[in-house]
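A quick aside before the break. I want you to see a complete sequence-to-structure record at least once, exactly as it would be stored in a machine-readable document. Don't worry about memorizing anything.
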Amino acid sequence: MHDLSDGALSDGVARFQREVFPAKARLYAELAGTHRPATLFIGCSDARVVPELITQSEPGELFVIRTAGNLVPAYAPVPDGVTASIEYAVAVLGVSGIVVCGHSACGAMTALAEGTDLSGAASVAGWLRHADASVARTAGTGPDRVAALVRENVRAQLANLATHPSVARALAAGALALRGWVYDIPTGDVAEVGASAAPTPAPAPASA
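That is the input. The structure line, written in C-alpha cells, reads:
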C-alpha cells in the first residue's frame, strides 16, 4: 500500500496535475460549466470501496454520498447533510438512478452483527441505530450473519430512500430507479440485491 503522509499526498496531486489532468483536459474544460451526473451513488465510507473505480466512471458522471455503513436515514423535516445531498441530486440535478452499495467485511455491519461494545464511540453507536431494523430482521451467526446483514441493510436503505419527498415524487413520475448492490472486496463481484422499475429515459446532458 502507498504511504499517504502529507508529502505523499502532495506528490499525488503533483502527479495528477502533470500526468492525469492533461490527458483529460478537454473533459475538465466541459465540466467547468456543466454538472449533470446521471446517477447518485450512496456507498460506505470504507476506504476500500471506491465508487468511480468500481463503476469505471469518468469525472462528472456520479454524484456520491458516502456514510458509515452506507446508511440513509429515513426522511425527517430536520436539515442534515445526507438529506440535503439526496434532495439536491434528485430535485436539482435530476439524476435518473440511485445506487445504494454495501460491501463485504463492512466494519459497521460487522460491529452490529457481533454486538461490539461501542460505548467508547457514542456518535458511531448513535449513527448505527439507523440499521436497527436491519439487525432485527437478520438471523444467523458469524460471517454468514455479517453477509446477510450487509444485504438486508442495503434493502432497508432503499426503503428509507423512498421516504424522502424528492425521491418519492421522482419514483411516482417514473423518472427514477433505485438499485441495491453488494460489492465483494476480494473478488470484485457486484451482486444486485434490489431494484425498482426502470426509469423513463433522461434527456442527454447539454453541452458546456
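Two observations worth writing down. The CA atoms of residues 13 and 46 lie 22 Å apart. The chain is about 45% helix and 15% strand. We'll return to this after the break.
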